[in-house]
Please model this.
Amino acid sequence: MANVLSKDKQVQVIAALAEGSSLRALTRITGIHRSTIAGLAMRVGNGCARLLDEKMRDLTCNYLQFDEIWGFIGKKEKHVSFNDNPTLGDVWTFCAIDSETKIVPAFKVGKRTHQTANAFVSDVAARIKNRPQISSDGLRSYIEAVENAFGSEVDYGMAIKNYGADSGQHHQERRYSAPEVTSIERRVIAGRPEMDLISTSHVERLNGTTRLHVKRLARLTYAFSKKLEHFEAAVALHFAYYNFVRTHNTLKMTPAMYAGIEKDFWSVGDLVEATL
Model:
C-alpha cells in the first residue's frame, strides 16, 4: 500500500474517511480505486485499534457513561437466514465516555448480549485506576457486567428514560424522530453514586458524533459494511481520530490532551504514521 499511494494521498484519504466520507465518494473525488482505499482504511483502522489499546491505560475517569449504538453487517437482522454467516445482521458498538475529559477509554463491537457487555465493561475496568461513577441506560446486561468487572469498587446508577406513546402515524414529519422523553428515572444499582450525575447525555451526544463521522453508522443511507472486520476498522479509526486528532469544542483541545495522555495536538499525518 505504501508503494501505491504517496504519504500525502494516504493522509488525504484517511482525513476524508475520518470526517465521514464514503469509499465510493472518495473514489469519485480522488480517482483512487475503491479497493485501494478500502485496503488503506483496513490497515490504518487495525493500527488505530492497536494504538488505542496501547495508549488507553492507567486512566483517571471519574464519571463514566455507557451506551450502545446500532448498526448492521451485510443485512438487517430481519433478513438474516439460519444458514447465513453468524457475523451478519445487527451489530452494536458498546462505548464509554468520561464526562469530564471526554475521552473514550474503550469500545466493543458485537451482538447486544451478556457476553459482549461483560467483555466491554471488563475492558473498561482494566484501563482505569480509580473508583469511578458509572451511568448507563436500562440495559440489564450492564448490571452483571459492572459487578463482575468492578466488584464493590464502583458507584453505579441507571438513567431509564420513559417515552411518550406517539408513534408518528399521524405526524409524518416525525416518522423518523425519536419519541418524546416524558420522564427519566434514576436508579442506584451499586455504591453511592451522585444522583444528579446519573446521566447518559454525554454518551448519547457521542453517539451522534459517531454516526456523523462513520458513514457505515449513518441512518437512512445506503452505506453499510459487508464484513465485520471492515466495520471494526472503521469504528477504531473514528475513536482514534476523536481521541487524538479532533479538537473538542468545549475543551479547546483533544480529549487525549485534556486527560493527560498526550501533550500536543495530533495531525491526521501523525495518526497515519503511528498506525502504519
About this structure: The radius of gyration is 19 Å.
